[in-house]
Amino acid sequence: MDMSAKLAVTLNALALYAISGVLAFAFYWQFAYSELPCPLCLLQRVAFCALAVGPILAIRHGPKPQYYGLVILAALLGAIISSRQMLLHILPGDAGFGSPFLGAHFYTWAFVAFVVAILAAAVMLAIGQRQFEVVRPPATTAFERSAIWVVLGLTMLNALSVFLECGLSACPSNPVHYQLLG
User: Fold this and answer.
1) Who is most buried in 50, 67, 130, 180, counting CB within 10 A?
2) Which residues share a beta bridge with 151?
3) Strand ranges (DSSP E) for 3-78?
4) How confident is the model at residue 68, as a pLDDT?
5) For the segment 92-142, what is each residue's pLDDT rounded down to a tens digit?
6) How far does Cα 40 stand from its chain's mean position?
7) How far is 124 from 146, CA to CA, in rounded Å?
C-alpha cells in the first residue's frame, strides 16, 4: 500500500477521534450540568454522527474522493443547522440556549467545527491524488479500528439518550426532563 494512502487512513482515524471528542463532551455536559439538548442541538449531534460516515468508509475501503464529498455534505448540513440556531439567538440581550463554554454557546462551537471539517475534507481532496489510486483497502490497525468503534458507541449512546428524552413523540423545544424517565 502506498504511504500516502496509509497516512490518509490515519488522518481519517484522527478525524473520528475528534468527532468522538465532540460527541463525548456534549454528552458529558448534558449529564454533568443537567442541560438536555434542544431539538436543534440534537440535529447538530446527528450531523456530527453523519460526519463520521466518510472517515469510516475511508478506513474500511481506502480513501476515495466520494467519501470526502460525504464529509462536506454532512458538515454543510451541520453548519446550516448550527447557523440557524445562532440566528435564533442573535438579538442583543438574548441569553441563548444553554450555558456557554469558553464564552460561546455549543451551537457556535458546532458551527466552527463544521467549517473546520469542510476545510479538512477540501484539503484531503486537494492533496489526495496518490491516495485515491489504492487498489485494495489498507490493512487497519487497532488505533483505526477503535476509532470506528468509539464513534459508533457514542452514536448509539446519543440515540438512546434521545429516545429517553423524547420517547416516541416530538422532542420538546425546551426540554427539562427525560420523558421516559418520569
Assistant:
1) 67
2) none
3) none
4) 93
5) 877 777 778 888 788 899 999 999 999 999 988 888 766 666 656 667 889
6) 14
7) 22
